[in-house]
C-alpha cells in the first residue's frame, strides 16, 4: 500500500494512491488532481468518460480515513480548466469539503489553475504561489530547482515503462526521487503521463496493483 522513504532527514510514505504522506506534519501531498477535466472536455464536445471527479474524491476520502491528517497540500492543477467550474464538479467538491471541515487545505497555484481560476471561496482552500517552504522541502508545481530546499513537485505526470521479455512492456505511474528535485505522479484519473527514465542521479518507484516498489 505504501513505500517508506527517508528524504532530507524526513520520513515520508509514497502511497499507491499516487500521493505522499508526511507523518511528522500529518500532511498529505497531492499533485495534479485536475478535478473537472472530463467535464471540461465534454464542454468542448469531446466524448470522454464520466465519473472521474467522483473517483478522485473517493480516493481522497480513503486516504483521509487511513491517515491522521491535519493538512492537505495540492501541488498545483487542482482544477483542469474553465470548464471545470461545471455545477456537477463544484457540487461534488463542496460535498467532499463538508465531509472534512477540520482539515486545512492549501493549493500551490499551477499552470492549469491560472487558466481555470482559483477554487470557489466556499471550499476554504488557501491559494498561494510557489514555492511553499515546509521543513527541508520547497513544495512547488513546476519542478524547478530551489537554492536551499529539496523540491517536491508535480506538473510532469511521470510514468515509467517496465520492459519484459520480447516486446512486453507496462507503462506505470511513478514517483521520481532525485538529488534535489523529486516528482509526484498525477493524482487525478484521466491525466496521461510523461515517460521518465532511470538514471544514476534519481530513483524510480513505480505504482501498480495497489503497491509501490523500487525499480532496480
UniProtKB/TrEMBL annotation:
Protein's UniProt keywords contain ATP-binding: yes
InterPro entries listed in its UniProt record: Calcineurin-like_PHP, Metallo-depent_PP-like, PdeM-like, Pesterase_MJ0037-like
Domain of life, source organism: Bacteria
TM stretches of this protein: none
Domain Calcineurin-like phosphoesterase: 28-115
Keywords for the protein's UniProt record, in alphabetical order: ATP-binding, Helicase, Hydrolase, Nucleotide-binding
Molecular functions per Gene Ontology: helicase activity; hydrolase activity
Cross-referenced Pfam families: Metallophos
Gene3D superfamilies referenced in this protein's UniProt entry, alphabetically: 3.60.21.10
Hydrolase recorded as keyword: yes
Identification of the protein by name: DEAD/DEAH box helicase
Protein source organism: Pseudomonas fluorescens
Amino acid at each position: 500500500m505504501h513505500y517508506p522513504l527517508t528524504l532530507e532527514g524526513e520520513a515520508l510514505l509514497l502511497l499507491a494512491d499516487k500521493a505522499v504522506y508526511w507523518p511528522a506534519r500529518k500532511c498529505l501531498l497531492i499533485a495534479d488532481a485536475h478535478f473537472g477535466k472530463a467535464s471540461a472536455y465534454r464542454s468542448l464536445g469531446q466524448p470522454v468518460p464520466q465519473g472521474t471527479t467522483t473517483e478522485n474524491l473517493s480516493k481522497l476520502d480513503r486516504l483521509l480515513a487511513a491517515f491522521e491528517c491535519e493538512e492537505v497540500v495540492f501541488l498545483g492543477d487542482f482544477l483542469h480548466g474553465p470548464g471545470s467550474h461545471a455545477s456537477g464538479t463544484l457540487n461534488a467538491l463542496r460535498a467532499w469539503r463538508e465531509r472534512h471541515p477540520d482539515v486545512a487545505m492549501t493549493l500551490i497555484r499551477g499552470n492549469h489553475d491560472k487558466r481555470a481560476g482559483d477554487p470557489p471561496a466556499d471550499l476554504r482552500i488557501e491559494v498561494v504561489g510557489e514555492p511553499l517552504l515546509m521543513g527541508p522541502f520547497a513544495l512547488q508545481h513546476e519542478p524547478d530547482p530551489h537554492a536551499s530546499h529539496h523540491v517536491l513537485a508535480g506538473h510532469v505526470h511521470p510514468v515509467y515503462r517496465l520492459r519484459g521479455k520480447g516486446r512486453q512492456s507496462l507503462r506505470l505511474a511513478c514517483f521520481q526521487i532525485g538529488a534535489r528535485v523529486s516528482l509526484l505522479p498525477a493524482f487525478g484519473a484521466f491525466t496521461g503521463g510523461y515517460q521518465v527514465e532511470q538514471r544514476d542521479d534519481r530513483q524510480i518507484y513505480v505504482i501498480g496493483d495497489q503497491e509501490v516498489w523500487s525499480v532496480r
